[in-house]
Every structure is written in structure tokens, then in C-alpha cells.
Amino acid sequence: MTGGAAPAVQSELQCRACGGQRVFDPATQALRCTSCGAAEALAAAGEGNAAAEWEFRPGRPTPIPGGEERVHSCRTCGGEVIFRGQVLSRRCPYCDGPVVQIEQDPGFRPMALIPFRVASETALQNARDWVRGRWAVPGDLMQAVGEARVAGLYAPFWTFDSHEAVRYWAKYRHDPWWSDDHVWKNITGTMKVEFDDMLMPASDHVTPIIRDGILHEFDPASLHPADPGYLAGFAAERHGQSVMQGLEANRSDRDLLIKARIRAHVGKPGARVVRYETDTSGIRYRRLLLPVWILHYRYDGTPFRVAVSGIDGRAFGERPFSRVKLLAISGLLALSALIAGAVYGAIAAGTGLP
């Protein structure tokens, strides 16, 4: 069901020299015309505030994101550009011109982004090199990967800061010198945990592969204002979560981190967390878009993906295993163990070792 017109940026993305379509070029960090090649740097307005964080106030009303279709009439050819779900940026299906939707609700508008720095050719090569470098891959896998293409996406993320006043109940293993039995001792304590720029996905579409491809290289100093020009030519997904929903969706990751801090605070072997309570305060957040290239390929009818960070080009992904190679490796390991055992037995027999 169509929900109305979609306010969007389009004419601003057209070339000032020839009127052609412009896309963001990671190599030059500028808008580049696909017709005449003219490039124009993006305005740096607000660069100093791009990394600013917002305070979370639970008492504020929670907006609800619209999920209906939004229609934009292409200003170049007049065709209909339909935005469905959380799509924020796409191309006109008739003239291939980039169109970036303007998010009307400030409760879901991206606050900043890190632009693509890695070109598609580099991302494709890095993804293929990653697959080629895995052990026990099928011999004909690279043929399937060679037919794949990469797609660039700005994925929605949160950063959260918080202060946690934690009270915990835990137990640890005690091994008395006079007994071979383990003794478990209970312990309780309090501690403070500070989270700073905890990066969390803001969409169910951000899989662990995509998240891990970005997490390691996030730097708030690299943030830029969410200028539509950076999105030109790339797909982008808007935030479909309120801040409260984002905190709730990422509760399990936060729980793992707090439990790890508790075990370190106990500082005893085999420490286990029984339960804990936390008083959370000082929550601050950002709504961000972060760049990732995704290579899709199929092998033996099964789909696989490799994600390449648009920030530094590192690749993470999925791949199939060769059963023949796995069996061969297992056989070699077993044979090595038998040889090692036979050698040790011969040495022991000759030297009288037990």
C-alpha cells in the first residue's frame, strides 16, 4: 500500500557542468559525474559536530517509524521511485539516477556516517582473496566466486555510552591443598562499568558477518555529517528502531560484556556469574550509517556472503568446505599421531622409559 510522496534529494546530485548523474566516489571522496567525469568535493558544513552524542531521556515520547511505501517522482525522467520498508537510498529504475530519501522524523534521521573509502574493485578483489586463502575449500569454488558481484551498503548502527553501577553474586572454584575435590565459594561485590562508543547494529539485516566486518575499525574521529551526497549511488537503510528499542535489541551483547567484567573483577579461577543487578545512567547515543561491501555467491545451490569493510577493506565471510579435503586432513593428522606414538614407543623401549 502506497503511503504518499517521499521527499527526496535528486537535483542536487546532478552534475553542474553537464546535468548528468553523479555518484559518490570513494577514491576521491567527492561526487563524480558518470557522464563527463567532473568531480566536486562535498561541503564540510558541520564537520566538527559529526561525532556529537545525544543524551537519552526515557520520559520522551517514542516515535514509530513508518513502514509504508513512499513514492518519489524522478525529476530527471518522471518515473516513479518507490521506497519500501527502511530503504533510504536507491536508483531510479528508469534512468538509473541516484535518489536519496529525506528522513522527516528526527527520531530516526541518521546523525552521522563514515563514507566509503574502499572502491568496489578493491572490495571485490579482497573478498575473492579472502575466500581463496581459506583452508579446505572446494577446488572449483573460485569459479563460483568469480561470477559474483559486490554491492555497497550503508548499514544502520548505534553507539551507546552508559554508566553501570553493578552489584553481583558469583562463585569461584577453590582447590584446597589437602583434597582433590573442588570447592565452590560464593562471593558478592559491587563495581562500576563504563561503556564508551559501544557499537551496535540498528537493524535485523545487519548480520554478525556485516557487524564483525565493521566493528574492528570504527573511529568516531572519522565521522562526517549525514550528507545525502555520500549516499549517492549506494544503497542505504534507515534506522527503524527507537533508542529504547535499540537498547533492548542489544541487551544480550551488553549482558555478555558485563559478565566478562564481573569475572575479571572476581579475579579467581573458574569464576561464574550467578546473577547481577545494574543501575544504568548517563546513556548517550548516536544514530550512524557505516559502509560495507557485500559479495553474494552460490556454491552447490547454497548462498554464501563475504562482507568487506568499506572503511579499511578487511574481509569476513562464509564459505563451504571440501569433504574430500577434510577427510584427507583428518587422515594425515591420524597418521601423524600414529607415527609419533610409534617413534615414542621405540625410544621408550630402547631407553627403558616408562
Describe the structure.
The protein is of the alpha+beta class and 354 residues long. The protein folds into three domains: 1-41 and 66-104, no CATH class; 106-321, no CATH class; 322-354. The protein has seven helices and 18 strands. The strands form three sheets. Strands 2, 6, 9, 10, 11, 12, 13, 14, 15, 16, 17 and 18 form a twelve-stranded mixed β-sheet that branches. The chain has a three-stranded mixed β-sheet with strand order 1-7-8, with no helix packed on it. A hairpin with a 6-residue loop joins strand 7 (69-73) and strand 8. It starts with a strand and ends with a helix. The model has no long low-confidence stretch (mean pLDDT 81).
What is the compact description of this entry?
The protein folds into three domains: 1-41 and 66-104, no CATH class; 106-321, no CATH class; 322-354. It is built from seven helices and 18 strands. It has helices spanning 120-132, 141-146, 208-215, 228-231, 243-249, 251-266, 323-351; strands at 2-5, 8-9, 22-25, 30-33, 39-41, 54-55, 69-73, 80-83, 87-91, 98-101, 112-113, 149-174, 183-201, 224-225, 235-237, 272-299, 302-309, 315-317.
Overall strand count: 18
Low-confidence segments: none
If helices are DSSP runs of H or I spanning 4 or more residues, what is the number of helices? 7
- Seen as an oligomer or otherwise, the chain set is single chain
Structural class: alpha+beta
Tell me the number of structural domains: 3
Q: Would you list the SSEs in sequence order as H and E?
A: EEEEEEEEEEEHHEEHEHEHHEEEH
The geometry reads as flat
Mean pLDDT, as a whole number?
A: 81
CA-CA gap between termini: 80 Å
User: In angstroms, what is the radius of gyration?
Assistant: 27 Å
The portion of residues forming beta strands comes to: 35-45%
Profile the largest sheet: 12 strands, mixed
- Fraction of residues in helix: 10-25%
